[in-house]
From TrEMBL:
Domain DUF7964: 4-90
The protein's name: DUF7964 domain-containing protein
Recorded superkingdom: Archaea
UniProt cross-references to Pfam families, sorted A to Z: DUF7964
Database matches in InterPro entries: DUF7964
């Protein structure tokens, strides 16, 4: 997946999301991150390409983005649920209580 290679080696900011979505074949949505004084460092995103959706996370300590889960996006509700589960489990392990989910319910 080329998207990971194109991500910066750091958490994203809100301004980083729009350029990701400039490609018509890609849709990226922030899932959550770590609050800063004036914004949030986005450490997890969901990315949809064609018929597959991916959950991606970055560990602040090493700056590497990892694909945490990939699912068939034919059933968006089921895909969203499965990605949320993968993201929730990962952030608890990596970030614990300092993580804040941004996803609107």
């Amino acid at each position: 997946m080329d998207t990971i290679a194109n991500l910066p080696s750091r958490p994203l900011r809100e301004r980083d999301i729009a350029p990701l979505c400039a490609d018509d074949r890609l849709d990226a949505v922030p899932y959550g991150g770590i609050p800063d004084a004036d914004s949030i460092r986005i450490c997890t995103i969901k990315v949809a390409t064609d018929d597959t959706a991916h959950a991606l996370g970055v560990d602040d300590s090493d700056g590497r983005w990892t694909r945490l889960a990939s699912v068939d996006a034919d059933d968006l509700v089921a895909a969203d649920r499965r990605l949320d589960t993968a993201l929730d489990e990962w952030v608890q392990t990596v970030y614990g209580g300092e993580f804040r989910v941004l996803k609107s319910i």
